[in-house]
Design a protein that fits this description.
Strand content: under 5%
Number of strands: 0
Mean pLDDT: 86
Radius of gyration: 15 Å
Order of helices and strands: HHHH
Distance between the termini: 28 Å
Largest sheet: none
Shape: elongated
Length: about 110
């Protein structure tokens, strides 16, 4: 789903000819922030959906969709403000959301 949203964002955003990869490393404090924030958003959204009475599987789906949407919108914002859309940031967002999912999967059902 994140890949689909990222693809749509690339169609909507203006294209640039120069891509600077060296300024977007795979490992940096920024990537850790993406991982942790996405995990937090996934966890908070899951808890909110479950508290609202949505089924457990529905809460997982809603939390994943919300996390993916926020991740892509954040990169769209970065593209418009800083002219930097990062697939690497999206990869770390996905990793954080997946990690949160596996942790939440082992939580006790209310």
């Amino acid at each position: 789903m994140i890949a689909h949203l990222a693809f749509i964002a690339t169609l909507v955003l203006p294209q640039t000819k120069s891509v600077v990869v060296s300024q977007d490393p795979w490992f940096s404090p920024d990537k850790a922030k993406h991982f942790l924030i996405s995990g937090f958003v996934e966890s908070a959204a899951f808890a909110g959906f479950e508290s609202a009475g949505i089924s457990r599987s529905g809460s997982f789906g809603g939390a994943f969709a919300l996390t993916a949407a926020i991740s892509v919108l954040r990169e769209v914002h970065d593209k418009r403000v800083k002219n930097q859309f990062s697939y690497r940031d999206l990869t770390w967002d996905l990793a954080g959301g997946v990690a949160a999912f596996f942790i939440l999967r082992h939580t006790e059902k209310p």
